[in-house]
Amino acid sequence: MTDVVVIHTDGGCRPNPGPGGWGAVLRQREHVREMYGGESGQTSNNRMELTAPIMALEALTRSVVVHLYTDSTYVRNGITKWVLGWERNGWLTAAKQPVKNVDLWQRLQVACARHQVEWFWVKGHSGISDNEMADVLATKGMQEAIDASRALTC
């Protein structure tokens, strides 16, 4: 269990759609890495929620066991239940509609394939310190994206 990397992720945007941010806390034994970023253009909460685990997994330099915690049921259900069916159906939903955020789902699949990832859902804002920190980081990324979008319009 010493090689398990525990990751907590979060994302959001204001307004939705609008500028957004994502955050991730990666923890392996005593090592902690905090990551965040944002998009100043039109994005969505779901895109930012997907971007956070992608960026965290892509940052890992070797194949490891990952316990990934998200407060997004969209992300957890998408990657653990829906994505294989979407792929099998040519990236169409059961209602034969194009899957939203297909570019990010495909990128998340590739990122997951490098590791042994176990997914967990946690209730947001429930006092789990690394989940709270991921939220703080996502908010920081979102604020920088909002500031950048305002600078572009001035």
Automatic annotation (TrEMBL):
Please give the SUPFAM superfamilies that the UniProt record associates with this protein.
Answer: Ribonuclease H-like
Q: What EC number(s) does the entry state? A: 3.1.26.4
Q: Which organism is it from?
A: Mycobacterium deserti
Catalyses which reaction(s): Endonucleolytic cleavage to 5'-phosphomonoester
Localization, UniProt:
Cytoplasm
Q: What cofactor does this protein call for?
A: Mg(2+)
Tagged with keyword tRNA-binding: no
Q: Which HAMAP family match?
A: RNase_H (MF_00042)
Mind listing the UniProt keywords for this protein, alphabetically? Cytoplasm, Endonuclease, Hydrolase, Magnesium, Metal-binding, Nuclease
Q: What is this protein called?
A: Ribonuclease H
Tell me the CDD domains matching this sequence: RNase_HI_prokaryote_like
Q: What does this protein do?
A: Endonuclease that specifically degrades the RNA of RNA-DNA hybrids.
Residues that bind Mg(2+) 1: 10, 49, 71
Free-text remark on how the cofactor is bound: Binds 1 Mg(2+) ion per subunit. May bind a second metal ion at a regulatory site, or after substrate binding.
Q: Which residues form a coiled coil?
A: none
What Gene3D superfamilies does the database record attribute to this sequence?
A: Ribonuclease H-like superfamily/Ribonuclease H
